[in-house]
Design brief:
By secondary structure, the protein is an all-alpha fold. Helices cover 70% and strands 0% of the residues. The protein has helices at residues 2-14, 19-33. The radius of gyration is 11 Å and the shape is elongated.
Length: 40
């Protein structure tokens, strides 16, 4: 999750354009952490 946290910081610095990408990245990271929680 450190990579996701770094991505979050970078996205916040760049601005709202990357928030959707960040959201997708966090969803992906969470699904990797706990596949049972994945909506797919």
């Amino acid at each position: 999750m450190l990579d996701a946290a770094a991505a979050a910081s970078a996205a916040l610095r760049r601005g709202p354009v990357d928030l959707a990408r960040l959201d997708a990245l966090l969803d992906h990271a969470q699904s990797l952490d706990d596949p049972a929680q994945s909506p797919r």
